[in-house]
């Protein structure tokens, strides 16, 4: 799919962190559960329990006490004879039990800065990765598709055995308000291992991205060379802080590349497998980010 080409600009997102808007997440503390033929599913969330039930194993369950309230959610990667490994995965809406991907989310029209949650987790090996992701979208009635407004992803591949607050920050691609949100929590990603697990509770959207202001900022210099690029992209940024995260999205808002806590620049990225089109390079530190549009 082609996207409109325009001159690259620097964009900064302005955050107001003091606002809490968590009430819009259905069953955000996993206090409500449905008893479905002998197993429990959290109300308003889709799980893989119906798929795994014939094998007498379940990837999602409730335990108590929660970090706040009576219950917390547990998702666990399980092994099924003849089927292989099934990740513990839930979606704030409906989930496809064949592809394990979200089918729907919930109505949501705000622009939060980040999602926070209380979590304990353990992955069976550093090669496995648990994650929490957030997607905000808006229906495009002209093109009959959903456009990505913002996306956030946090990955975990070690362990934490006490309740700890974590956050998933959102990267906004434009200034529109969404009409839908989807949260995915998973105990495994690309290389699932049996018994990787996540315990999670008390999900909250926090802060508000009040707008996207585009302007040139002299003390921040971002370069992408060559642009347009082919098989390799060199990125450089002169930033007044360390530990910068890199996100690269395609024109549909899908995450193409993620590098956490970059310590030095310039950075070389292999792009030989990327399809031609427009991409957005996002550098983020703290609650701020700078975005540059690039073309292949």
Please provide a written account of the structure.
The protein is an all-beta fold. The protein folds into 2 domains: 16-212, BT2081, beta-jelly-roll domain (Jelly Rolls), CATH 2.60.120.890; 217-295, Immunoglobulin-like (Sandwich). Helices cover 1% and strands 54% of the residues. It is globular. 36% of the residues are buried.
Structural class: mainly beta
What is the CATH architecture term of the largest domain? Sandwich
Q: Identify the CATH class of the largest domain.
A: Mainly Beta
Quickly count the domains: 2
Helix content: under 10%
DSSP helical segment count:
1
Helix/strand order, N-terminal first: EEEHEEEEEEEEEEEEEEEEEEEEEE
**Radius of gyration over C-alpha positions, nearest whole angstrom:** 20 Å
Largest sheet: 10 strands, antiparallel
Please give the number of β-strands.
Answer: 25
Provide a brief overview of the structure.
The protein has 296 residues and is mostly beta strands. It is 1% helix and 54% strand.
């Amino acid at each position: 799919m082609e996207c409109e080409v325009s001159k690259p600009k620097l964009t900064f997102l302005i955050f107001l962190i003091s606002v809490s808007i968590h009430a819009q997440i259905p069953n955000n503390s996993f206090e409500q559960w449905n008893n479905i033929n002998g197993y429990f599913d959290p109300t308003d969330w889709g799980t893989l329990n119906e798929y795994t039930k014939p094998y007498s194993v379940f990837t999602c369950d409730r335990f108590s006490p929660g970090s706040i309230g009576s219950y917390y959610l547990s998702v666990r990667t399980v092994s099924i004879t003849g089927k292989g490994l099934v990740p513990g995965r839930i979606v704030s809406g409906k989930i496809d039990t064949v592809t394990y991907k979200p089918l729907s989310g919930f109505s949501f029209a705000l622009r939060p800065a980040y999602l926070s949650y209380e979590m304990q987790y353990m992955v069976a090996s550093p090669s496995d990765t648990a994650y929490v992701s957030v997607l905000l979208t808006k229906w495009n009635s002209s093109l009959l598709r959903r456009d990505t407004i913002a996306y956030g992803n946090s990955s975990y591949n070690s362990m934490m055995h006490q309740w700890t607050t974590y956050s998933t920050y959102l990267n906004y691609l434009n200034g529109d308000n969404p009409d839908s949100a989807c949260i995915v929590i998973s105990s495994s990603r690309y290389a699932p291992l049996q018994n990787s697990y996540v315990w999670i509770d008390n999900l909250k959207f926090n802060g508000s991205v009040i707008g996207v202001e585009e302007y040139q900022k002299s003390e921040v210099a971002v370069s992408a060379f060559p642009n347009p690029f082919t098989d390799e992209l060199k990125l450089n940024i002169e930033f007044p802080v360390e530990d910068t995260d890199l996100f690269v999205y395609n024109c549909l808002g899908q995450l193409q590349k993620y590098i956490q806590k970059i310590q030095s620049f310039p950075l070389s990225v292999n792009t030989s497998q990327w399809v031609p089109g427009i991409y957005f390079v996002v550098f983020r530190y703290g609650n701020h980010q700078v975005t540059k549009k690039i073309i292949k």
